[in-house]
Amino acid sequence: MANIFRRWRIWILPVLTGLYALLICILVPILLTKSMQNGFKKEDQGALLGGGFALLALPIAFYEIIQHMIHYTQPRLQKYIIRILWMVPIYAVNAWLGLIYPKISIYVDSLRECYEAYVIYNFMMYLLAYLNADHQLEHRLEMSPQVHHMFPLCCIPDWEMGHEFVHMCKHGILQYAVVRPLSTLISFICALNEVYGEGEFRGDVAFPYMIAFNNLSQFVAMYCLVLFYRANAEALEPMKPIGKFLCIKAVVFFSFFQGVLIAILVYCGVISNIFDTDNTDDIRHISAKLQDFLICIEMFLAAVAHHYSFSYKPYVNLAQGEPWWDAFRAMWDVSDVHNDIKEHFSVVGSSLSRRIRGRGAYQQTWGHVNERTSLLPDQVIPTAHSAPGGSFSGYTSDPGHSDNQFGSVEDLTEPRASGNNVIT
C-alpha cells in the first residue's frame, strides 16, 4: 500500500480522468431529463450549451493544475500559478450554476468577484517572486531608466525607480484585493435590503456607485500592473509574459466590463428589443443569464490559453520535486494574503506621514530597508548547486554581481545543464 502512494504520479491522472468521465455520465442524463420535463425551453438549451463548454474547460484546467502538483519543483513560483489556474474552474462552475439556478446567482457571483481580486494579487506576487529571487529587484530598477506615467495620469510626478516604484505598484495592485471583496460585501448587503438595484443607473440605488467604485479600483490595479511590466519588460522576457498578461486581463478585466456593458444595454432597452419583452424582471433575468452563458464559453477559451501560457513543462525534471501535499497545502494556505493585506492597511494608514516626510522616505540605501516589505518574497539567495525545492538553479550569490540578466530565469524556458541537474 505504501508503495502505491509513493507512485501516485503514475496513477493520479488515470484515476481522476475515470472519475470525471463517471461524473459526466451521471450528470448529463440528469440534466437532459430535467430539460425535457420542462419542455426544453430556451433557458434549458442555454444551460446545456453553457454546461457543455464548462465541462470541456474543467478537464483542461484540472490537467494543468495536477501536472504542476506532480512537477512541483519551484514552489516559489508554482504556488501562485496553481492559484491562478483555479480561476477557470471557479468561474466556469459559478457561471453554470447561475444558468441552472438563477436565484442563487447572487451568492455564487460573490465568490467569483472575490476570486478576481485574489487572482490579481497572485499574479503580482508571481511576478515579484520571479524577478526578486536574488533580492536585487529594487537595485536593478534604480539602475534602470525612469518609467514615466502614461495617459491619463501623465501629470502625476514620476515614481522614483527602486523602492518607491515597487512600493507604489504593488500597493496599487493590492488595493484591488481589498476593494473588490469589500464592495462585494456591500453589494450583497444592499441586495438583501432591496436597495442594490442591479442594472438600474439611478441615484437612489447602490448599483451605479458600486460599478464606479469597482471600475476605479480596477483601473488603478491594471494601470500599476502595466507600469510594472514596462519597467521590467526586458527582465520578464524569458518567461514570455505577453500571453500571461493577456490571460489575466482578458478574464478578470474583460469579464467585469462585459457585465457592465450588458447592464447598460439592459438599461437602454437594447436587450428588451432583441428578446421582445418589456418586463423589467424578465430583462434582468435574461441579462444575468447572458453574462453567465458568455462566461461559460470564455472559460473554455481561457482554459486553452492557460494551458499554453502557464504550462507545467518548464518545471519538468528541474529537480526531484516536492511532495504533492506541499503543493496542495500551499494552494489553500492564504496566510501570505492575510499578512500582505495587513501590511497594505498599515501602509495606507501611514500614507499621510510619508507624504509629510517627502520622497526622502523612499531614498534608502540598497540592501537596507527601514520599512519591511513582505510583498517581496523572502528567499535564500541560491547558487548553482543549491538544494532543489525553493531554489533557482543558476543564480549567483554574489551581492556585488553587476550582471542585470536573470540566468536562472532563462533556465525555466530554455534547456540547460547545470551541475548535476539537467533541465529539459
TrEMBL record:
<feature type="transmembrane region" description="Helical">
    <location>
        <begin position="84"/>
        <end position="103"/>
    </location>
</feature>
<feature type="transmembrane region" description="Helical">
    <location>
        <begin position="45"/>
        <end position="63"/>
    </location>
</feature>
<feature type="transmembrane region" description="Helical">
    <location>
        <begin position="115"/>
        <end position="133"/>
    </location>
</feature>
<feature type="transmembrane region" description="Helical">
    <location>
        <begin position="209"/>
        <end position="229"/>
    </location>
</feature>
<keyword id="KW-1133">Transmembrane helix</keyword>
<feature type="transmembrane region" description="Helical">
    <location>
        <begin position="12"/>
        <end position="33"/>
    </location>
</feature>
<dbReference type="Pfam" id="PF03619">
    <property type="entry name" value="Solute_trans_a"/>
</dbReference>
<dbReference type="InterPro" id="IPR005178">
    <property type="entry name" value="Ostalpha/TMEM184C"/>
</dbReference>
<feature type="transmembrane region" description="Helical">
    <location>
        <begin position="250"/>
        <end position="275"/>
    </location>
</feature>
<keyword id="KW-0812">Transmembrane</keyword>
<protein>
    <submittedName>
        <fullName>Transmembrane protein 184C</fullName>
    </submittedName>
</protein>
<feature type="region of interest" description="Disordered">
    <location>
        <begin position="387"/>
        <end position="424"/>
    </location>
</feature>
<dbReference type="GO" id="GO:0016020">
    <property type="term" value="C:membrane"/>
</dbReference>
<keyword id="KW-0472">Membrane</keyword>
